[in-house]
Amino acid sequence: MAFEGLAERLQNTIKKMTGKGKVSEQDVKEMAREVRLALLEADVNFKVVKDFIKKIKERAVGQEVMNSLTPGQQIIKIVKEELTDLMGGEQSKIAVSERPPTVIMMVGLQGAGKTTTTGKLANLLRKKHNRKPLLVAADVYRPAAINQLETIGKQLNLPVFSKGTDANPVDIANDAIAHAKEEHYDYVLIDTAGRLHTDENLMTELREIKENVDPAEILLVVDSMTGQDAVNVAESFDEQLAVSGVILTKLDNDNRGGAALSIRAVTQKPIKYAGMGEKLDELEVFHPERMASRILG
Ligand code: GDP
Known about the structure:
Blueprint: H1 4-15, H2 25-41, H3 46-60, H4 63-66, H5 71-86, E1 102-108, H6 114-129, E2 133-137, H7 143-156, E3 160-161, H8 169-182, E4 187-191, H9 200-213, E5 217-223, H10 228-241, E6 245-249, H11 258-267, E7 271-275, E8 283-285, H12 288-296
Parallel strand pairs: 1-4, 1-5, 2-3, 2-4, 5-6, 6-7
Antiparallel strand pairs: 7-8
Helix pairs in contact: 1-2, 2-3, 3-5, 5-12, 6-7, 8-9, 10-11
The structure holds guanosine-5'-diphosphate (GDP).
Subunit structure: Part of the signal recognition particle protein translocation system, which is composed of SRP and FtsY.
Family: Belongs to the GTP-binding SRP family. SRP54 subfamily.
GO biological process, one term: SRP-dependent cotranslational protein targeting to membrane
């Protein structure tokens, strides 16, 4: 289950505050120290933790809390609000171009879940938004990647545009968009190449595609279980490509939540969706407030 370890620790810490008729500065200090340790253990970025704790402390020793009849409850509310804020506050919507199709580039490192997520997102756009999506196989370096997207397309009964491994990714993307216009598709989801590490060749290729297709969104797919590595990957993709949003995968297996709680604060880019399982309908719109509730119980 997502965030299980972190949730358990934070809930234990915070429960001590519930029902307190009076809260001293010392109580707040102790709670803040425990929350800090829990977040660091969950692999949340050091600076993010520092800023977070500072805000909690400032608010918790404020007049509104200390003079309240239920200070313990007030403090829990503050932690929840700040956690929500940390994950972006409001839910972030997917772009829709005025003139269809809306082009979305899916980017990320190999193994992060990019191809699966491309299928999941197309499925969600069709089911939830009633849109007609076209999947595009632009990872020409790995024949297995094209096959994988085609298999996913078959499972979902969605079309996959492919030109095999000999074509150039920019041409594939351009041809796919032309095809989508003719056939009145609403969304074009381009599954781009991934590598094991960020490298210059990959970034050059992705930039070329970006310049040619002018996407409405560049969604970075990262594996939430990799914690701060995911955050570093996000920073480097963002520097090179200016991504528009993040999709966190494998949140169902992420016990700690370090990436989920750091990535927004570090990159300033919204988390748009979360992968909650291997199945193709297990992609959820990311709701910061619901996530915060999940953590605090
Ligand atoms: P790519 O190399 O980035 O295209 O990654 P894939 O789409 O091939 O996914 C890699 C592995 O992660 C596959 O076994 C997927 O089933 C799995 N995966 C992707 N998203 C999720 C998720 O949200 N939860 C879980 N549990 N597994 C996922």
